[in-house]
Amino acid sequence: MSFLSLLARNRLALAGLIVMALVVLLALVTPILPLADPDVTNTGNRFLKPFSEGALLGTDHLGRDLLSRLLWGTRLSLAVGFAAAVIAAVLGAAVGIIAGYYGGRVDNLIMRGVDMLMAFPYILLALAIVAALGPGLLNALIAVAAVNIPFFARNIRGITVGIAHKEFVDAAKLAGMGDARIIVSEVLPNVVPVIVIAMSTTVGWMILETAGLSFLGLGSQPPQADLGSMLGEARSALITNPHTSVVPGVMILIIVMAINLLGDGVRDALDPRLRSGALTRPMAATMVQRKGPVPDPQGDNVLDLRGLETQFHVKDRIYRAVGGVSWGVKPGECLGIIGESGSGKSVTALSVMGLVASPPGVITGGAVFYKGEDLVGAPYERLRSLRGREVAYIFQDPLATLHPLYKVGDQLVEAIRVHHHVSDKEARAKALGLLKDVRIPNAESRLENYPHEMSGGMRQRVGIAMALANDPEVIIADEPTTALDVTVQAQILSLLDTLRREKGLAIVFITHDFGVVAQLCDRVAVMYAGRIVEEGPTQIVLDAPAHPYTRRLIACVPELGEGKRALHAIPGLPPAVNDLPPGCAFAPRCDKATEACRQGEIALDAFGARKLRCLFPETELEAAQ
Amino acid sequence: MGSYILKRLVSAIPVLLGITVIVFAIMALIPGDPATAILGSYATPENVEKLNRDLGLDKPAVQRYFIWLFNMMQGDFGRSFSLNRPVLDEVLDRFGATLVLAGTSFVLCSLIGVAAGVVSAARQYGFADKAITFVVLLGISIPSFFLGMMMILIFAVQLRWFPASGMWPIYGDRNLLVLLDHLLMPALALAVVATGVVARLSRSAMLEVLRQDYIRTARAKGVPERGVIWRHALRAAMVSIIPVLGIQAGFVLSGAVYIEMVFQWPGVGRMLVDAILKRDILLVQGGVVFVAACYVGFNIVVDVAQSLLDPRIKT
């Protein structure tokens, strides 16, 4: 019943439903209403204006009561429209089910025919059918139903193909059921909802199309009139007596609009993507709702995060993806940020330049200092001018992160030209240099490639070249090697390392792989459930991890030549960040956890060059003074 | 590219043949005797038989189909009895007017529809989005013939801005300005529904694309928001918008029939309605086949445009 409540929540759909119910009700009770006979002509009273004595909506060119004709016409139009929808749905579904269920040659033949019918401009085919059958309301109905059969056939076939290969259909076949019985008892119940929905969204069209044919004089014939032929007859008196046209026209508009509102509501209520908010567009920069004081920058870091908090607000739930994270990098330094999926490391990285999708992302606290300037809440234009020019990103999967429809050369040129006023030719020369910098062979011809024409490793080199395009001070690399195989990964890592040394870049390297951290990073910060649990110089942390989580994470890395060391996966899953336990978030998965761990906030304490958030460290650390 | 176009042209041949078969089959359904329909119910049996022989209707259906097909391939679509002139001459005369009308509407619905959809998506849930969504809903719900009539009432009769009907004035010059003056109202009336459909689809295609990773990459590069929307997102969204534009082309081409009736536009649609009412079957057959064939041709153009836009399509 959540479907009905969703529909009810959509006020416009509800309005459509109410209007439609009223119209249908009126059409149903028309025969018992005290109305004038719709077909009795009275030429003495022709073209009475609306609100005249005895004729609420006036009379038409033959003196017939318009209100009566309108209600009878509505009745007829609705009946014809619904009938056409039902006929098209039943026949179309039958054709679609047969094609989808039997497949093979039957399917091929039927769908060719359907494609052929769909090659006609829609209304043209209806005209041809009416031409053959002759004008008349029944023939118009047949024509409109017929031209809509292919639409239903194609939709239902798609669904049936999916069902025909499900286990329960196979089971029914093995049980010796005949095809006809399987279709009726197994397939049909699954496609009926789809048929009903498709009907609800097309019935408006059917009413419009039959009204259209009647308007052309090819549908209902006098004296009988549906809304379309009322409009058609009124056309000759349009200028002198517009009310005879307006009355039926507005009625068609009301009916079709109500049906469309209702249809949209049904579709929206059934679309899971709308329910989850997956179809909201992300804004140009992450929303900022900073509460509490703004911290001060510390040290001589080029990029410095202080107590950053980023949350996702989904309906009434709050996911604390980043819960107060602080770190910094100096020029020429590489900081590794490591953690499982969902630990908040990517969200932290994207928050720096306001790239967290928003909605639902909101930065709720802390500060991001770039050379002492706080970027949280900075004007969009300021943020944009720093993006790519001072702080650049390398993303994980370059097939998804490079634009699929632009040549890589054009994408590099654009990256240069959004920040520098140089000619296309100069930018192109620079782009070529960049591709050579990242060791792409045949760089000239590669400029003309589309991303899908390159290998994964080459694409990631392009991603790196793009990040280097404006000689940034900081590069944030978000799992840049995760999608690559090991040899390519090693090449990319050594490339980044060389670039860092040559250009004095600060690199923030996000990964879930301690092996990668060991190769590249000076320092490492371990994140769990949106917070840093341990931080320190890479070698020291690797040799003597202090947090139980760090130790377990390192134990997950297989080592070559180390023999038969067992790999220990960490049991359990990271906690949901909308429902964090008090105290240590790792406690439920930790074998050393005690009551004390679950009591309250545990601070990230400094021990010399290291920091740790744990009551029972794996190794003894000496407290800094 | 050349070989791709050739391939598409070749694959259109069975579709064209299928169209002729369908049209012929539908016309073969005609209840009663066409000759009686032409001559009226008071015709003598001898006259009916003679006409049947003259029209070749005494031969079996399959033979008749091939005669009709081969004649058409040689440019002979038969002779319209109600107009007493070759079908093809009449269709060609009328098709130009329809093409002007439908072509203008197609351009209007593509430009306005896509722009409205993009703005709507870029300002999702904002005022512009809500306003556009409402207008679009109104647009796809209003019958084009009713809209056309109301436009005549307001802009031709009340305000006297535009002529109420026709393609050319009865007297006076025939130049582009005069044509535009006559064209604007019918082209708009015809474009409204298609514009609504295109705007809706463009909006949802844009919303889909704006979630993609490469849009985040564009933002991370520092591309201004306008470039993100109109260059990066729209280019990708066009891949799903173009097929819908193709469908809308068919819609305006055939939907022109209503507008041609309302605005007395001398197009092929009005010719077809007249022919249907007079039961001039050859004229209907010829007109329908001709327009459908043009639409098939246009769809090839759409496919080629799609392959130019999306390098991932194997050409």
Describe the overall structure.
The complex is a heterodimer of chains A (625) and B (315). Chain A is an alpha/beta fold and 625 residues long. Chain A has a domain at 2-27 and 56-278: MetI-like (MetI-like fold), CATH 1.10.3720.10. Chain A has helices at residues 2-9, 11-29, 66-102, 104-118, 122-133, 137-164, 167-174, 179-215, 227-234, 243-270, 272-275, 345-352, 380-386, 398-401, 408-417, 424-437, 443-446, 456-468, 486-503, 514-520, 538-543, 548-555; strands spanning 287-288, 303-314, 317-329, 334-338, 361-370, 373-374, 391-394, 474-478, 506-511, 523-528, 531-537, 605-607, 610-612. In chain A, strand 2 and strand 3 form a beta hairpin. The longest helix of chain A has 37 residues, at 66-102. Chain A is elongated and about 105 Å long. Chain B has 315 residues and is mainly α. A two-stranded antiparallel ribbon of chain B has the order 1-2. The mean pLDDT of chain B is 88. Chain B has 2 domains: 2-87, no CATH class; 91-309, MetI-like (MetI-like fold), CATH 1.10.3720. Classes of the chains: A alpha/beta (625), B mainly alpha (315). Chains A and B meet through helix 4, helix 5, helix 8, helix 10 and helix 13 of A and helix 1, helix 6, helix 7, helix 8 and helix 9 of B.
* Highest-level CATH class of the domain at 2-27 and 56-278 in chain A: Mainly Alpha
What name is given to the CATH topology of the domain at 2-27 and 56-278 in chain A? MetI-like fold
SS-derived structural category of chain A: alpha/beta
Instruction: Report the average pLDDT across residues of chain A.
Output: 85
How large a portion of the residues of chain B is in β-strands, by DSSP E? under 5%
Oligomer: heterodimer
CATH superfamily of the largest domain in chain B: MetI-like
Radius of gyration of chain A: 35 Å
Could you name the ranges of chain A where pLDDT drops below 50 across 5 or more consecutive residues? none
Output the strand order for the largest sheet of chain B.
1-2
Low-confidence stretches of chain B: none
